[in-house]
Amino acid sequence: MTVSPPSPELRRLVDRLMEGEPLARTEMARLEDLLESPEALAYYLSITSQEGLMPEAVAAAETATPGAKRRRILPFRQLIQAVAASVIFFIGWKIGTTGSSTRDQPAPVVESRPARITGLMGVEWNAGEEPDLLSRAATARRLSIRSGLVEVTYASGVRVTLEGPADFTVNDTTSGKLDAGKLVASVPKGAEGFRVDYAKGNVVDLGTEFAMDARNDGAMELGVLDGKVNLNLPGEAPRPLLVNQSIVHGGSGDEPVQAIPFDREKFVRRLPARDFRWDMTSFSPKTLEFDVSHLIWKGSRYRAIFKWIHGQDAIVVRDVALYCDDKLVVGDSHTGSTGILQHVHDNRYQLDLPPQEFRRGRWTIRATIEPMERLSPNITGPVLSQGILQLEEGLVTTANPADFIGKWSYYALGRRYVREFHADGTVSLSVEGQAIPEAFEGSRWTVENGVLRATVPDQAAVEEHVLRNPDTLIFTSRPYDNATRMR
């Protein structure tokens, strides 16, 4: 008998896990927190044990009923593989401490891929080192970049953020090697012992967040952002470092290891947000300005997307431009609009930054917005329109149809939706696991210049989508959160 879920949140996370959908890092951490409760753990084990027995039950039913339609069931081992290693560790520990009755429990299966690239920003790869980012089987091994940021997430939940120029190698599921550049490693509970090697030693985490800089002069700078690490040098006992402590090893001083003030500001701890809030509350035109310095790492084909989220008014957008230190570099003066689906037209703005125009400085986007004329007498009262600007580059202009094919999961007003783009150009939709065949009846989708356009016949409109990365779909014409690819 299945135990009742202690909370809707736990049920939602477990349901997604049972469907084979990977959880985001924050969701994995939240699930681990929830499983601290004995009631939550009992519910989780009840669900997974039933899933583990289901293939045998189905096979028996099929034997008894010739011609029965075969149902695809995910084996228990595959389900366990989908769980974040931090959660697996916790569950395994709990099972191991409940008594001798658990001796025959199968050992948890650890994710075979040591790490995956989970984020990119402004990356330029060194020649011959660019991985196949669109391959679902792609794993992160050696990462050699000239510029930009790369986020690597290990199966254990350890997150490593690299800042170029950098050269980093994933050794195995619990370690890596930094040969050049800067990194920040964030190690969650349960993944303690993560190690980063460098030319003259290694750093072992003891439950923490730490930063390293393999400098051009051959020295290694190490600082502890939170928690504690051990610095291990050949022939010496481990040297513990606590939060806010920082050292340089192998510098030009008389001592091989020297204490220095910790410069936290020189390290990027995680990939910065790409979304910027805007609002419109009057009938007069308004000039917007957004600081996007943290997103401009190189010359590239950038796209500024103005997306409506809330409010009764649609807005007109024009004169979108990219500035460096208050000097105009590139602009797109076309007039577009954003609002409900029927009012979204040309809301993407082309900001192609030539490589020779790139330089370090304060980069900003400026744009002019104003309310669209109200066409319905039912819309009264003050102006209200709110939304976000999303600055994207990479797949936003280069994605092809194959990159979109598959299932995408997202939430809207607390409900879970799954949208699937089929290879034959059709679209299907389910809500909370229930298929809605009439939702996209007669719809077709195509891709041009990285933009997917899907017709919505019952609304006489067209939806548009772009990719932020291989696993993140942006709704450019709907007020929905980004969708995540289902594996």
How many strands appear in the DSSP assignment? 30
Radius of gyration: 26 Å
- Secondary-structure arrangement, i.e. CATH architecture of the largest domain: Sandwich
> For the report, how would you describe the main beta sheet?
12 strands, mixed
Summarize the structure in words.
The chain is an alpha+beta fold. It has four domains: 8-102, no CATH class; 115-266, Sandwich (Jelly Rolls), CATH 2.60.120.1440; 275-393, Jelly Rolls; 401-485, Lipocalin. The chain is built from seven helices and 30 strands. The protein has helices at 8-18, 25-34, 38-64, 76-82, 85-96, 395-398, 401-404, and strands spanning 115-125, 142-154, 159-172, 175-186, 195-198, 201-205, 209-214, 220-226, 228-232, 239-242, 246-249, 257-259, 275-280, 286-291, 301-310, 315-324, 327-332, 336-338, 348-352, 363-371, 385-393, 406-412, 415-421, 427-431, 434-435, 445-448, 451-456, 461-469, 472-475, 483-485. The strands form four sheets. Strands 1, 2, 3, 4, 5, 6, 7, 8, 9, 10, 11 and 12 form a twelve-stranded mixed beta sheet that branches. Strand 7 (209-214) and strand 8 form a beta hairpin. Helix 3 (38-64) packs antiparallel against helix 4. The longest helix is centred in the first third of the chain and has 27 residues, at 38-64. The chain is globular. Residues 49-111 have low confidence and may be disordered.
How do the helices and strands line up, and which of them pair or pack?
Blueprint: H1 8-18, H2 25-34, H3 38-64, H4 76-82, H5 85-96, E1 115-125, E2 142-154, E3 159-172, E4 175-186, E5 195-198, E6 201-205, E7 209-214, E8 220-226, E9 228-232, E10 239-242, E11 246-249, E12 257-259, E13 275-280, E14 286-291, E15 301-310, E16 315-324, E17 327-332, E18 336-338, E19 348-352, E20 363-371, E21 385-393, H6 395-398, H7 401-404, E22 406-412, E23 415-421, E24 427-431, E25 434-435, E26 445-448, E27 451-456, E28 461-469, E29 472-475, E30 483-485
Parallel strand pairs: 4-5
Antiparallel strand pairs: 1-2, 2-3, 3-4, 4-7, 5-6, 6-9, 7-8, 8-11, 9-10, 11-12, 13-21, 14-20, 15-19, 15-21, 16-17, 16-18, 16-20, 22-23, 22-30, 23-24, 24-25, 26-27, 27-28, 28-29, 29-30
Helix pairs in contact: 3-4
